[in-house]
Amino acid sequence: MNETLTDPQPLSFEEALKKYEPVLGFEVHVELNTVSKMFSSAPNAFGDEPNSNVNEVDLGLPGTLPVVNGRAVESAIKLGLALNCSIAESCRFARKQYFYPDTPKNWQTSQYDEPIAYDGWLDVELDDGEIFRVEIERAHMEEDAGKLTHAGTSGRIQGADYSLVDYNRAGVPLIEIVTKPITGAGERAPEVARAYVSAIRDIVKALKISDARMERGNVRCDANVSLMPKGASRFGTRSETKNVNSLRAVEHAVTYEIRRHAGVLAAGGSIVQETRHWQETSRTTSPGRIKSDADDYRYFPEPDLVPIVTTEEWIETLRAELPEPPAERRRRLREAWGYSDAEFRDVVAAGLLDEIEQTVEQGASPAVARKWWMGELSRLANARETAPAELGVEPATIVELNQLIEDGKINDKIARQVLEYHLDGEGSPGQIVAQRGLEVVSDDGALTAAVEKAMAENPDVVEKVKGGKLKAIGALIGPVMKETKGQADAGKVRQIVLEKLGIEG
Amino acid sequence: MSEISRADVEHLARLAHIAMTEEELDKTVEELGEIVDAVKTVQEAAGEDVPATSHPLPLTNVFREDVIGHTFTPEQSLANAPDADAGRFKVPAILDEEA
User: Fold this and answer.
1) What is the pTM of this model?
2) How many domains does chain A fold into?
3) Count of C-beta atoms within a 10 Å radius of residue B31
4) Does A416 lie in the same domain as A490?
5) How many C-beta neighbours within 10 Å does residue A84 have?
């Protein structure tokens, strides 16, 4: 079990890739956001008091019968369609039997030889825009297990005296998506891994079938890695790293496993087929259970559930409800908005596509929408330890705020204050500006006159600005403020000076 | 002739985490064999034209609406638990088996 002690030193990633070709495979579990569970009417909810979201079906009490949640089936069909899968005309559930206290029935109700969706593909986009096609083997329905806490002296699973079980998660609907072996990724294997899991997360979010929060385990990834010598066609022995639950961790886990396998193989050793555990702190994996005859689950068709039969009409109705695929939507928006790749990536990473899209739809320019959401709103969200999309600021508010600036009623600095007052519940930007008397001098005539006067009185400053020292404009703002009794918009003053001197700001 | 071998029973016992003595294994091999033989009589009745089925009901697509129905309180959930702690079922630790 303890072969980390005897494992040879992992090769560097570059060396590993010189010698070997990586083959990947993923099993991604998606928790659905149905109201109730897969086979029982207990709530599907996160974070509640232990064992408060269960009933007799989830606890596997004798004589109870499961009934399938129709919405979960429709979610599975939609996901299958979004992954370009064939949808089974008929499929069944099966019992996957194992003896572990996370399932009180001693089996997990899953699908085995008849998954609801099969033979699909997904094009994932890598960082440089290259498209990599991942073939999907199947997507099947099953239920989640309960949550164990290992208690005892060591606090670890080894050496624990007893375990405590909360069955709130038992019976939560899951869809497991299994890829075919992914070959040809080469040195981009870790990137492909991250892009694939990221694409799955985006799709289930866009389909609105899952909350898709990886930190809550809504999307969980088991990563299979094996290596074969360059030019070979027979796959090597694989390891399966379980529950890699962040995009970064998926990338790192694949990188580490490629290096570790290469180290073992290059030293003449052989890979043990086993599960591995991801160690976030050291960015390594540690050995888990060795695959053995204990993996014999004795599957058989679930006698308590009747088959599911799909009709073309049903499938087409669901297909018509599919949203624009997230990758296509991103390409469309990036083009429409004209952001640089880096700018667009930051927007996606900040989770602000919807907000910016709505802000633009309601009349702001893409640049303005980005400026507010990625700038001040992100700063305010950060200070409040939340996400900008969670601040409760409507896109319409940003449009209104920006209009006040464009109309010259307030400047940027005051607009930022207005936003803070808005978050404190003082009403719309227009109301705040009126109530607090924040309107700046917007009379271009008076302002221009004041600027002209200041320029005439400070020819040395004007020379500096002409010579390229734009910072010198600051010296003109003071006199203009004095002339306008402090109500001038400094940005506008600057703008007028530059215009007068014919300099591009 | 029974199709259940001693190796089959040992394997099943291991899967089910059940420790069995030699005598128990002998007895179970015999008993399971008899059960399988009894069930096998079905094969005599079903001809080649009868497709395999997982249940006898001529039903498909029995679905439940996605609404919350009755749910146990934590006290009810734990009512029959042999042992409990902190609102959770307390079970013996099972080592080396993160499912």
Assistant:
1) 0.81
2) 3
3) 13
4) no
5) 16
| Beta pairing partners, A120 | A136
Of A436, A459, A480, at which residue does a domain stop? A436
Same domain, A62 and A189: yes
CATH architecture type of domain B1-48: Orthogonal Bundle (1.10)
End-to-end CA gap in chain B: 37
Provide the ipTM: 0.88
Based on the fold, state whether residues A118 and A39 are members of the same structural domain: yes
Nearest one of B70, B48, B68, B35 to A64, comparing CA atoms: B70
Q: Does residue A95 share a domain with residue A153?
A: yes
The answer to whether residues A98 and A153 belong to one domain is yes
Is A343 inside a domain boundary? yes
Give pLDDT tens digits for A444-465: 677 888 888 889 898 888 888 8
Size of interface A-B (CB pairs under 8 A): 158
Span between the terminal Cα atoms of chain A, in Å? 67
Instruction: Let me know: does A490 contact A482? Beta carbons within 8 Å.
Output: no
- Measured at the CA of A8, the angle between CA A4 and CA A11, to 5 degrees, comes to 115
List, as ranges, residues 38-67 from B with C-beta within 8 Å of A: 54-55, 57, 59-67
Give per-residue pLDDT as tens, B45-56.
877 888 777 778
Q: How far is CA A294 from CA A183, A199, A287, A298, B10, in A?
A: 29, 33, 17, 10, 12
Interface of A with B in 429-458 (CB under 8 A): none
The answer to whether residues A303 and A336 belong to one domain is: no
Structural domain that includes position A77:
13-314
Which residues of chain B have a CB within 8 Å of the CB of A54? 71-72, 77
Question: Do A256 and A112 belong to one domain?
Answer: yes
At residue A130, what are phi and psi to the nearest 5 degrees? Answer: -65, 140
User: Does residue B69 sit at the A interface (CB-CB below 8 Å)?
Assistant: yes
Q: How confident is the model over A116-139, as a mean pLDDT?
A: 95
Mean pLDDT estimate for chain B: 88
Q: Is the sign of the CA dihedral B94, B95, B98, B99 positive or negative?
A: negative
**A126 assigned to some structural domain:** yes
Q: Residue A79 CA to chain centroid, in angstroms?
A: 17
My answer on whether A170 and A109 are in the same domain is: yes
